[in-house]
Amino acid sequence: xxxxxxxxxxxxxxxxxxxxxxxxxxxxxxxxxxxxxxxxxxxxxxxxxxxxxxxxxxxxxxxxxxxxxxxxxxxxxxxxxxxxxxxxxxxxxxxxxxxxxxxxxxxxxxxxxxxxxxxxxxxxxxxxxxxxxxxxxxxxxxxxxxxxxxxxxxxxxxxxxxxxxxxxxxxxxxxxxxxxxxxxxxxxxxxxxxxxxxxxxxxxxxxxxxxxxxxxxxxxxxxxxxxxxxxxxxxxxxxxxxxxxxxxxxxxxxxxxxxxxxxxxxxxxxxxxxxxxxxxxxxxxxxxxxxxxxxxxxxxxxxxxxxxxxxxxxxxxxxxxxxxxxxxxxxxxxxxxxxxxxxxxxxxxxxxxxxxxxxxxxxxxxxxxxxxxxxxxxxxxxxxxxxxxxxxxxxxx
Length: 397
What we know:
The chain is largely without helices or strands. The protein has three helices and two strands; from the N terminus they run E-E-H-H-H. The chain has a domain at 7-54. Strands 1-2 form a two-stranded parallel ribbon. It is rod-shaped, with a radius of gyration of 30 Å.
């Protein structure tokens, strides 16, 4: 009797012989494991067979299922209904979940590196300690999601809704959050901080967000909305905050060393003990800011609006304030040594006990300025008439 050999379209049930090219293999290895899972999950024959043979669960209704600790690497779950499903500690590396519904799903501790999750509904889902490094979550919904301790390193979260999400202790270094919504999100707490260093948050909505102690060094926040956000003790050194809305934001104790805040709106912001050494604040609006003991040494504030700002005891040593509006500001006890104040508006500004030694006051407006016990030694640009007037008001030369 001649040996019967399988053709290139036959299905081979395990065995020792190698299958022909293009044939499907049942039994043994990944297919057998998936067949076992299909039976365990009570999948319909059609869905179970498609999953077993092709690792395809697209469009499947798995809501409420217990899929925890399963190996679903590279599985296709596009458009699947996974509401309330338990996927904790499941391996979903490089899986395709585009368009899936994961509302209130449990993905805590899951491996989702490189997964495709664009336009997915993950609102109120649990992703605590999950790893989504390099995953694509563009335009997905993560509102009210639990994301504490999760990894989003180099992930794409552009256009994502993260409103009121809990991101405490999450790592978003290098993530793309361009145009995302983080309003009301909890990004940090008193006991944990979030890593957003190098993240792209261009035009993101972070109004009211809690970013206390977060690391946003070298992040791109240009054009972002940080209205009344908590940025206290945040690391923003080297960050791009150009044209950012920081109205009423709390930046007390924050580090913005060499940050770019050009044309940013900091109206009524809290800058108490904020470090802005060498920062670029050209054209920025700092009117009515509160800056007790703020360090602005070497900062560029040319053309900035600081009218009504409270910069008591601030350090502006070597800063550039040329053409700035400082009218009615409080700069008493401030250090303005070697500061460029040429063409600055200091009308009715409080400079009592301030140090203006070696400052450039060429064409500066000092009408109504309070200069009692202020030091003007070796200043430049003052006429003899101005010197006499200031001395009469208590200035020291």
